[in-house]
Amino acid sequence: MPATMKTLGIDRLTVEERLSLVEEIWDSIASETPYTLPEHQQQDLQRRMANHAVHPNAGSPWEEVQARLEAQL
Q1: Residue extents of the structural domains in the chain
Q2: What is the pLDDT of residues 18-65, one digit of tens each?
Q3: Distances (CA, A) of 42 to 9, 30, 36
Q4: How far is residue 68's CA from residue 42's CA, in Å, rounded to a whole number?
Q5: C-alpha distance from residue 59 to each of 10, 42, 45, 65 (Å)
Q6: Which pTM value belongs to this model?
Q7: What is the separation, in whole angstroms, between the first and last Cα of the chain?
Q8: How far apart are alpha carbons 12 and 10 in whole angstroms?
């Protein structure tokens, strides 16, 4: 029988407990499975990091971006 939320009792956990469990499961997967970005994403990341080094104040903090987006709604 496959493991399910019901057979493992996960369905009886609170949302907070389930979120904590998801985080723990995700961390265990990440620690066992190294992930390498595809070449095109590595290049994009390097380009963005170089751009940030040249223009460190060009971005906006998340709080400002979120406030602008919420003001548009």
Answers
A1: 1-35, 37-73
A2: 999 999 999 999 889 888 899 999 999 999 999 999 999 999 999 999
A3: 40, 19, 9
A4: 30
A5: 41, 20, 15, 10
A6: 0.48
A7: 47
A8: 5
